[in-house]
Design goal:
Elements: H1 5-12, H2 23-39, H3 47-63, H4 68-86, E1 92-96, E2 100-104, E3 112-120, H5 130-144, E4 146-152, H6 163-177, E5 185-190, H7 192-206, E6 214-218, H8 230-233, H9 243-254, E7 277-282, H10 288-300, E8 305-310, H11 327-342
Parallel strand pairs: 3-4, 3-5, 5-6, 6-7, 7-8
Antiparallel strand pairs: 1-2, 2-4
Length: 352
């Protein structure tokens, strides 16, 4: 009796292999891929910056809109933590003429001491964090291979405008009388310090003081009247700032002066005859329009200006290296800009 042909075919047909993919390996592979993209700076925004802004948002929920006194107490607590972590002290604190407190924030290695970054810290004109800014300014000075001097200017409301501007100008004059040539000085500042940097330059022009070689502004606060549309346009995506708090600080600073006074809000000044500017801003900060409008007006005044806006970043994002990895490239660019203007003929300077 002949075997059933269908049965024979079934028996002779090789069994197909089943490939079962282990879900654990899929998860591991995905995790490794994400880590690779993250640490090769291929993700925009990076995971680390997302985590950073998440922590900032949580901090804002916990602190809320506190009065100025409580904000200062909170900043002092953070300052103490930062000092304990960094175990860092200023190299030298001195009192310049007129009692202006300044400190040298030099890198550890000895670079050219005939050139300097004059740095004006942020803090909405009412607050400060020397340990935090010292760490960043030292890092920037190391990258730019130069000295750095940070000004501890007077704060509002105890010392309203023009106290901070007077201190910034006094520190600049002190550098000039100490033997530094203006072409070997770059003035830089973040947030309120960025606005103060611009105001200092306007003051120098109006009083026939020699101009520094260049200026760097990090998320500058240039309009204390709050006329920028980004204040409302970006209020739901800015994890760091809100106009309610900024407006209180602004009023404490400008006091009896109008907020549109050009030395209070340099955006409203005559922007001509100024040195080259580099402006770094975040695409998710309510002060973005300050930078955009200021850059436009500088261009209209025939001043050299370079504007960098990182779309997914917030206020003074480039200062938060290494917490925000995108800041590394920005800070290298800032260092190159500074050295280019301090040493315009030195085309072989290399940055690492």
């Amino acid at each position: 009796m002949q075997p059933n042909s269908k049965t024979t075919e079934t028996k002779n047909k090789p069994a197909s292999k089943k490939h079962n993919i282990n879900p654990k390996w899929l998860v591991v592979s995905a995790f490794i891929t994400v880590l690779f993209l993250e640490f090769t700076n291929s993700l925009r925004p990076s995971l680390r910056s997302r985590f950073f802004y998440l922590l900032v948002a949580i901090n804002n929920l916990l602190t809320g809109n506190k009065p100025l006194e409580e904000q200062r107490e909170h900043m002092q607590r953070l300052e103490k933590i930062i000092k304990e972590i960094n175990d860092d002290e200023p190299q030298e604190i001195i009192y310049a003429p007129a009692g202006i407190k300044v400190e040298w924030v030099d890198p550890q290695t000895k670079f050219a001491h005939d050139q300097v970054i004059l740095y004006l810290h942020g803090g909405a004109f009412v607050n400060k964090s020397p340990a935090f800014h010292r760490r960043y300014v030292r890092h920037l000075a190391t990258l730019a291979k130069t000295r750095a001097l940070m000004v501890d200017y007077r704060l509002a409301p105890e010392s309203p405008f023009p106290a901070a501007l007077e201190d910034a100008v006094a520190a600049y004059k002190w550098l000039l009388t100490s033997g530094y040539k203006p072409e070997k000085i770059v003035i830089a500042g973040d947030s309120a310090g960025g606005g103060l940097t611009a105001a200092c330059l306007l003051y120098c022009r109006e009083h026939n003081l020699p101009m520094p070689s260049a200026a760097v502004l990090f998320s500058p606060w240039l309009d204390l009247a709050g006329t920028g549309n980004s204040i409302h346009r970006l209020e739901n995506v800015d994890m760091q700032l809100n106009w309610e708090n900024l407006e209180k600080s602004a009023k404490a600073y400008y006091g009896e002066y109008p907020p549109t006074h050009p030395l209070v809000s340099p955006l409203f000044g005559e922007l001509h005859g100024l040195p080259p500017f580099l402006i770094i801003a975040g695409g998710r900060e309510i002060l973005l329009d300050d930078s955009l409008r200021f850059a436009d007006r500088l261009s209209m005044g025939e001043c050299d200006v370079e504007l960098i806006v990182e779309p997914n970043m917030g206020h003074v994002w480039s200062i938060f290296e290494p917490l925000i990895p995108e800041a590394e490239a920005a800070n290298l660019h800032v260092a190159e800009f500074i050295q280019h203007h301090l040493n315009p003929t030195d085309t072989e300077t290399k940055f690492k």
